[in-house]
Design goal:
Dihydrodipicolinate Reductase, domain 2; Gfo/Idh/MocA-like_OxRdtase_C; single chain; 12 helices; oxidoreductase; Gfo/Idh/MocA-like_OxRdtase_N; binds nicotinamide-adenine-dinucleotide
Length: 369
């Protein structure tokens, strides 16, 4: 049975997009929003005609009407805000990256299990139009056997460094930006065993006072020997005329496809068909509702509606907490490979943090509503 779910939102920067998504969706009712910065709250109230806002997270946590809390605070605060929401008995939607390290992962698994509540990671790029079509084709077997995935996020993201928290401990380009292509690679090759790669901190990056590398190139291998390559560059001019920010290419025995963000294009070449380009340009106003193309309201509306459908059916929306933690472990292994210059096994990191290894009972911690 389909019904309407009641949402509270914390963090109203990019949280603006989920406000728009919830207000336009028939599946959601927006109950209250929260930000520490009153100016931001007022701006959102004016923009969307909201009846209220709060500066205190406790007001969302203690509101019995709110069933789900959506978290869009700085990366370093996600762990604390998820834990508080679970302890208050709420389901959670958390924007990417789930966490900025594996340290808080184990306590969150415990808390989710104890609360019997869901944690869904808002991996927006899975929910962009070309990526949705690519996934459908993949699930229909149109690629045949996929044995390589090429995923990238290349962007001149120097604008992002205006945020004070992007220059504070816990921020990394790997978690904030590269998490998109890492998630796409792992979506298609879930059993990544080993990773290897390099990272470099460019002069521009260093001038901003960042040591976290802004130039990242990695290879990921799964248990069957299939390979993914993941790349990112974040502080240099880009070739926007030919490059799209995010790209995911699948190469299989019966077909190859490439889904692009933000170009709304999907290129395919399947057996029995010539090369084709599918454009979803007519959906531009749905996906990009504010200035520029760095907001994600359309993708968020797609994922909250998917989340609502899962709640209706008593299913666990993916990526869930455990899948999100496994993707974080891939990034932790990538980080270690970069530091040591050696290939690193993903499960090694999971064991170090006493976390469930990959390929186990993936729903072990997924608790039903
Ligand atoms: N594609 C995507 O899904 C996507 C895109 C952009 C941003 N994000 C994510 O959204 C998060 C926020 O990024 P942003 O660009 O909006 O940053 P931002 O700095 O613009 O917004 C963060 C907001 O959180 C508020 N805040 C900080 N601490 C708080 C607290 N304790 N309680 C309440 N409010 C608090 C700040 O006042 C600020 O308004 C990040 O984790 C980022 O990775 C995801």
């Amino acid at each position: 049975m389909s019904r309407t779910y009641k949402l509270g939102v914390i963090g109203l920067g990019e949280g603006r997009s989920i406000i728009s998504a919830a207000l336009q969706s028939e599946r959601w009712e927006l109950i209250n929003v929260c930000d520490l910065n009153e100016e931001v709250c007022r701006a959102r109230r004016e923009e969307f005609g909201l009846s209220r806002y709060t500066l205190r997270y406790e007001d969302l946590l203690n509101d019995p009407e709110i069933e789900v809390i959506a978290i869009y605070t700085p990366d370093q605060l996600h762990g604390r805000h998820i834990l508080q929401a679970l302890e208050a008995g709420k389901h959670v939607i958390v924007t990417k990256p789930l966490l900025h390290s594996l340290e808080e992962a184990s306590s969150l698994l415990e808390a989710a299990k104890k609360a019997g509540k869901l944690v869904f990671v808002g991996q927006s790029s899975r929910f962009f139009e070309p990526m949705i079509h690519q996934r459908k084709d993949y699930e229909a077997g149109r690629h045949g056997e996929v044995d390589t995935v090429e995923a990238y996020y290349i962007s001149d993201a120097r604008w992002f460094l205006k945020r004070d928290w992007s220059r504070q401990k816990g921020f990394s380009w790997m978690h904030n930006f590269l998490s998109h292509p890492v998630d796409l690679a792992k979506w298609y090759l879930p059993g990544i065993e080993e990773v290897f790669g390099y990272g470099h901190s460019s002069r521009v990056n260093q001038e901003y006072g960042l040591s976290s590398p802004d130039t990242l190139r990695f290879l990921l291998r799964d248990g069957e020997g299939r390979i993914a390559q993941v790349s990112g560059s974040y502080t240099k001019p880009t070739l926007r005329q030919v490059d799209s920010g995010i790209g995911c290419t699948l190469r299989g025995s019966a077909g190859t496809s490439r889904a692009l963000y933000s170009k709304l294009l999907y290129h395919t070449h399947f057996a029995g068909e010539g090369p084709m380009t599918h454009s979803y340009e007519e959906k531009h106003p749905y996906y990009f509702r504010f200035e520029g193309e760095s907001h994600h309201a359309g993708e968020y509306q797609n994922y909250i509606e998917y989340f609502a459908d899962c709640l209706d059916r008593g299913e666990t929306p993916k990526p869930d907490l455990l899948e999100g933690i496994h993707t974080l472990a891939v990034m932790a292994a990538m980080e270690r490979s970069r530091e040591t210059g050696r290939p690193v096994k993903v499960d090694e990191l999971l064991r170090e943090y006493s976390l469930p290894v990959q390929g186990g009972e993936t729903d072990a911690y997924a608790n039903r509503a």
